[in-house]
Amino acid sequence: xxxxxSGEMYLETIYVLSQRKGxxxxxxxxxxxxxxxxxxxxxxxxxxxxxxxxVGHDGGLQLTEAGLEVAQRTYERHTVLSAFFMxxxxxxxxxxxxxxxIEHVISSKTFAAVKxxxxxxxxx
Length: 124
Description:
Number of helices: 6
Order of helices and strands: HHHEEHHH
Number of strands: 2
Radius of gyration: 15 Å
Structural class: mainly alpha
């Protein structure tokens, strides 16, 4: 199943919340993303059916190996691109918003080049 941008955003949000809180429920995701309970419920069902997450009997959301891989990749792109843009003088809000849009469409090849360049520049 090929994920759309919204699916990647949900997985990234679940990942970030799980790093901060440990236990993540649909309501936590909805609050963080500003989405309604029905919207989150629908997305969780799609992601569960796609093999990206599981839902425990206690309502806890757990990323599967596939879900974790997508979430970590998306989060890395977000953080590296945000930091890169800020290093160019872009304000944090704009850098973060732009990174959030770009992280879903940038190719692996281009992202690797940006990451390498940014890391080399930070070493100087």
